[in-house]
Amino acid sequence: MKRLVSMAFATAGALLLQGCAGWQSALDPKGPAASELAWLIWFFTALCAVVWVLVMIALVVPLMMRSRAQAEPLAIKAGADDRKLRAVMTAVGLTAIVLIGLTLLSFFANRTLAAIGSDAALTIRVTGHQWWWEVRYEDATPSRILTTANEIHIPAGEPVRLLLTSTDVIHSFWIPSLSGKLDLIPGHMNVLDLKADKPGVYRGQCAEFCGAQHANMGTFIIAEPRAKFDAWWNDQLQPAATPTGDEAKAGQDLFLKRPCVMCHRIGGTPAGGTVAPDLTHIASRQTLAAGTLTMSRGNLAAWIADPQGIKPGSHMPVVELSGDELNAMVAYLEALK
Amino acid sequence: MRAAVAMLLFPVLALAACQREERDTRPQSALGSGEQPTPVTTLEPGGQRPPASDNKAASFEANAFHMSEGKRLFGWFNCSGCHANGGGGMGPALMDQKWLYGSSIESIHATIRDGRPNGMPSFRDKIPDDQIWELAAFVRSLSGNAPSSAAPQRNDDMMAHPSENRMPDAATLGKSP
């Protein structure tokens, strides 16, 4: 029985600690900003724990060692006041030293964070919407400016500068394994620099309550080697693939005739709406609806047929489509790689 | 006794706060046809014809959620391109007392759905019917035809008029009470 209980405790502990690793954990840093912050929080926690233990000892020990009632409690003891004064002054001095030390540490950590993006070669404008992320890659050549949604590709090992803003309410951009969180505020631009040490996929999450589907506002940072990143960028700049096959052609026709065209853009077609995610290469993304569904034919169909069932309150309306029309639409979107 | 009543009253009042406006974001597609014809005039030989009303109109007309959604769509679909936030430009103003094709929500819905001569395009099949109703409800509030407690607040853009919940009531506009 005792062994069973201890095993259960060990398993529970292991499972709990497992939550600290993975693609969305501030305790599993994968970039310089996150490791700086992780180190800082561990040091703060450890030092504060030590201080707390010392205070507890100083409190409990005298209580345990309380002397018996004195015959003359009001008698003045020589040197007692001096001793107390010394103890208090020592405590005040130590507190000041610890506070100054932690302040300095936090100051230097901030300097390190600020220095990360000082020579960033890549600027990405991230705009928060209810409830998805608009991602625009800035470039000196206007024809190379690229707009996508929800997935942020960055070159691994290189600092990247993110310009954060919002169009509706305040959101917060947070990729726990890469950096701290920063708000996206309407009418205001915040700057966040980050760097991913190694290639990989890191999940992020809106960290400021922004309405009904706040929990379903995920994003992904995909760090790739530079060559792969450049190839990806060039691919994304291409207009959407021309549909082949009758079904996909019918799907494109439908897309342009139905309400989809009012909000979404598909490069190379007359669809030019910019109030909803750009769908030019939607099938090349890993997820649908800001990290809510994995990209698959079935999920695409489910999302189009009933977006309000998957993300109630989202701004994508229910559009009436027959079964055949839905199939055609999905066939078209699925080919937009 | 008095304390007991107060104790009872408090949870009742607190629970009353749970009552909130219904938000129907998933319309029944069977109701979404929006094909009801709307007359543009009440003139009819042999007497006035009965006013047409749509069974959807009432659920959109004074609903705060739908009106604010309409306000968002008004910007998204660039209605301001012609109507300049209701102040009028290439298209007629939407905030005054006289409406060319009727000020009922059904008439405005028909205007958006079917278009009107001299430039208003038809948005049939381009905007889902429920969103046309939302737009119509918002456009109606531009002239004060909505309860100020439900009309959208806070304009994010330069507007030709105060925010909708501060508009004078269209029913008494320009008249002494």
Structure write-up:
The complex is a heterodimer of chains A (337) and B (177). Chain A has 337 residues and is α+β, with helices and mostly antiparallel strands. Chain A is 41% helix and 17% strand. Chain A is built from nine helices and twelve strands. Chain A has helices at residues 2-18, 32-64, 80-115, 226-237, 246-257, 260-263, 297-305, 307-310, 323-334, and strands at residues 122-129, 132-137, 146-149, 151-155, 160-166, 171-173, 182-184, 190-194, 200-205, 218-224, 287-288, 293-294. In chain A, strands 3-2-1-5-8 form a five-stranded mixed sheet. In chain A, strand 1 (122-129) and strand 2 form a beta hairpin. In chain A, helix 2 (32-64) packs antiparallel against helix 3 (80-115). The mean pLDDT of chain A is 89. By secondary structure, chain B is mainly α. Chain B is built from six helices and no strands. Chain B is globular and about 70 Å long. In chain B, helix 3 packs across helix 6 (129-141) and helix 5 (105-114) crosses helix 6 (129-141). Chain A binds chain B through residues 186, 257-259, 261-263, 275, 306, 308-309, 312-313, 315, 317-320, and chain B through 23, 25-27, 29, 32, 72, 76-77, 125-128, 130-131, 156.
